[in-house]
Known about the structure:
GspL periplasmic domain-containing protein; single chain; alpha+beta
Amino acid sequence: xxxxxxxxxxxxxxxxxxxxxxxxxxxxxxxxxxxxxxxxxxxxxxxxxxxxxxxxxxxxxxxxxxxxxxxxxxxxxxxxxxxxxxxxxxxxxxxxxxxxxxxxxxxxxxxxxxxxxxxxxxxxxxxxxxxxxxxxxxxxxxxxxxxxxxxxxxxxxxxxxxxxxxxxxxxxxxxxxxxxxxxxxxxxxxxxxxxxxxxxxxxxxxxxxxxxxxxxxxxxxxxxxxxxxxxxxxxxxxxxxxxxxxxxxxxxxxxxxxxxxxxxxxxxxxxxxxxxxxxxxxxxxxxxxxxxxxxxxxxxxxxxxxxxxxxxxxxxxxxxxxxxxxxxxxxxxxxxxxxxxxxxxxxxxxxxxxxxxxxxxxxxxxxxxxxxxxxxxxxxxxxxxxxxxxxxxxxxxxxxxxxxxxxxxxxxxxxxxxxxxxxxxxxxxxxxxxxxxxxxxxxxxxxxxxxxxxxxxxxxxxxxxxxxxxxxxxxxxxxxxxxxxxxxxxxxxxxxxxxxxxxxxxxxxxxxxxxxxx
Length: 518
């Protein structure tokens, strides 16, 4: 977001800053009184600035901030979060502004988690200001602590000491924050005793802090406490006279101008407030303390902007799709016009070439039809080759059958005339159908054959004829009819013979009709 409101809260006042495109504007202080609250509300409601729609980041610099280091069983997931929440309520019951951060794990024993619990122990200091923000429906992004935000300041300044005490002079007083291996372990704020603008009680307060750290075993005896003091260049010489290095304390000084350049400030700050506010404006972390219901308007604003962004993206995609289709339509129209011109050119060339040719005896369409008919006749005209091949394969499996005569016919098989009677009349199919136009015509094959009949065994002869007919009928689209058998089995026929006569080998004539559809 390009525009923000950065609010710096101390026990006595609230200083409001405008953040516009990465630049921190001048601050305006409002005292902790009814008049100050009215002035703060008027500042927010300024119609020219439209601050009510800008997200607010509340940075607290209060003396009533507690830090406690606890060992917590190593539990993860939902159970771990519930355990941390119970421990927070046990340590700080009277405030909703409480949080925790994981420092690491113990190297011995159960390997418990080292957790730093922190809280703003006097929520009444925030209540008037948060109620004003709630009443005006200002979107509050989060509530932050200068102690926890100074971790980013240490990283920006590249201060690498195992035992570090960062001393900054801020609007709320003198802030001392202890870091062990880059992690915040403790922070305290004291009143500043200034003489000619120089905090003359820095050395005394540093010694008190060192004694406290030693008594709580956060700092072992014999460890050197490297104290880094941020101060203006004009005060560093005076502070060096007040701060003497000892066996367990070593003082280091950093010019606020250099610190401002590292952070990205364009002007030299008088206090560390602007350093922390710039870090908050450039890279705001997650809220240190839960804002609760105070953040609902901020969530509403983010959801609204997300919907606006999604709508804009959908609209841009639709517009892009329309433009692509429009360009594609224009390109297709140009291609269609080019193809139409090429077609006209080829037709003109064809007419030009055909005009020079002598008259053809037949039209092109007739020639095409003739070629098509020729191809159809060549592929579908009837011929007995395939049918005779099927018959030959069946005769190979029936050695007792001897072929006599064959009568092949294209089209439906002609009816066989009775003995002494003329053949019945039949309707002749069109000649084109017999030529295979438009489909291949059926074929019929009437065969007369002899079957071997040893000892005049008609039963064996009939079985051989039936087996031969069944072999032919297995062919696809083949229909076999036994028209005449060696023995007349009709009920009206009379049988005669002598059973006592010796049987001789003979042959019997039979007739089959094969009808096949190619």
